Every structure is written in structure tokens, then in C-alpha cells.
Amino acid sequence: MLAKLTAKNQLTLPKAATAAVGAAEYFDVQARDGVIILTPVRLQRADAVRAKLAELSLTEQDIDAAIAWARQRVAGPAAAAPAKSRKAARPKP
Description:
Elements: H1 15-21, E1 26-32, E2 35-41, H2 46-55, H3 60-75
């Protein structure tokens, strides 16, 4: 397959190439050893993340505990400061 780079540095991917990797609006772009590598990135919306959390029956307390645990593991006991409530920071749907 052949694709042409325009004067504006834009590239149109052949339909066969995009069909082979599935629907994607964004691509991660890397250059290695003179080769450009495009990897499809599928962004998850916040509602999809919330649905997954609900499916796993995770509560806000579970998440706060996990964050505190992770901070302790990375930086030692001093980094495990009490977590602030996320209710005030969370945007309303």
C-alpha cells in the first residue's frame, strides 16, 4: 500500500490498513530506526470507566485505600497522607 505525505505534513491511511486494525480515531506515533510505527489508541470515556468500576463493585473507600497503599509502597509510610474526599472534586454528570 502506498500513502502520500502532503505539504501540510498530513497522511491519509489506506482504507485496507485501517480496516485491518479496526476503528480508531487516534494513533500513537513512534519513529524507530527510520520507520514510522502507528498504533491505534482507543480512548475510554469517563462513563465507561465508571461502568467498569460499578461492574467490579469498587467503592470510593476501596479506591482511597488502594491509593494510600500505593503511595506507601512507592515512597514509604510518610507518603501515605490521608486521602481527600473526591466528592467535591468530582464533576456532576
